[in-house]
Design a protein that fits this description.
Strand order of the largest sheet: 6-5-4-7
Low-confidence stretches: 24-28
Radius of gyration: 20 Å
Structural class: alpha+beta
Mean pLDDT: 82
Order of helices and strands: HEEEEEEHHE
Largest sheet: 4 strands, antiparallel
Strand content: 25-35%
Helix content: 25-40%
Number of helices: 3
Length: 143
């Protein structure tokens, strides 16, 4: 009888830890959700639910990378575009959640940006990453 009680208590503790872990993961995941995403002639800025801000000036942009994910992002996106100015500066733009047309309009202004390369990268089977544009040619890419 004591063994049964101990087994039930152990299962209850493990279930409780699982639920607590899941809630913590959900809270941290929701902090990555995009609250606002603005495109203007000078820059793109993304405000996250936890108060962080990502931003990059179009003139500072050095690469554009498409990332396709197996799981949905916090925004419900199937992937995202990384707009990078440096290893420490850039902005993530979720794909497939309503920003694609505005994003493409801005990317089309980049010298040598190729829409076909972007679409091919966006349509890759996940997981996949591909640099689709850079100021300096990247080996193995079409930019």
């Amino acid at each position: 009888m004591v063994e049964l009680v101990l087994s039930v208590v152990a299962v209850a503790v493990m279930a409780g830890l699982f639920v607590l872990g899941r809630r913590a993961k959900d809270r941290s995941h929701s902090g990555s959700r995009t609250v606002s995403l603005t495109f203007d002639p000078d820059r793109v800025t993304r405000l996250l639910a936890d108060g962080r801000e990502e931003s990059v000036a179009w003139s500072d942009l050095t690469w554009v990378e498409v990332v396709c994910t197996r799981v949905r992002t916090a925004d419900g996106a199937s992937g995202f575009v990384l707009l990078g100015a440096s290893e420490d500066e850039g902005c993530l733009v979720p794909l497939g959640v309503g920003h694609d047309t505005v994003l493409l309009g801005n990317l089309a202004r980049l010298e040598s940006f190729d829409l076909r390369t972007f679409v091919a990268a966006r349509d890759q089977r996940p997981p996949a990453r591909r640099v689709v544009w850079s100021r300096e040619p990247v080996p193995g890419t079409c930019s």
